[in-house]
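User: For my dataset I need records formatted as: sequence, then structure tokens, nothing else. Please produce one.
Assistant:
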Amino acid sequence: MKSRPNPPNSPKKQQEATEEVKVSAGPVTLDGMLGIPGDAKGIVVFAHGSGSSRFSPRNQYVAEELRKAKLGTLLFDLLTPEEEEVDVVTGHLRVNISLLSERVIGATDWLTAYPKTKDLAIGYFGASTGTAAALVAASERPDVIAAIVSRGGRPDLAGKSLPQVKAPTLLIVGGNDFPVIDMNQDALEELRTEKKLVIVPGATHLFEEPGTLEEVSRLTAEWFVRYFEKTGSNHNSS
């Protein structure tokens, strides 16, 4: 059996809750999984970390918990299959924040045009280097992105884009993830929006310890629900 984060996640449930989509992002088309519960309060775009994909078991678990909170989710691959093959050898694309942020922006624009999601407010959930891509994308779409959450992210890699982010931003870091704690504290000082840093006691970088991923999911759902509702972001047509 494949190992999964605590608590375990059911692939069958994931299949039932989501649909496969093709996300147009500039010159490329990317594979994605879209899940929209009834009466969705908004939709969260997942920007995964280095070497991961839409099948990340940790992000899938968080996405399932968000859907329980009436939040839509889009998990998508930041690279095409051909790019993935090249990147397995070079490792360059997975840390190309400029390219990855362009893909996140492309997915955002796709959501604003896609019939099932065009009336939903949008938030970003980033992990590792995906956090930097999400923050850069948010600085480019300041009037579209309602909130951002980072799990064990590298917001410092967003560089000069940090002060331009308008969306309320929650940074979640494991209490035992010492280098990343410092990087998040530094980035927090650069942000000029509503912001918060939460350190989850006993958690390492991947939040594999019992109860830690549940805590990430709880904090994430609360943040998105709060700011989607605060901005009147349930724009579903009646």
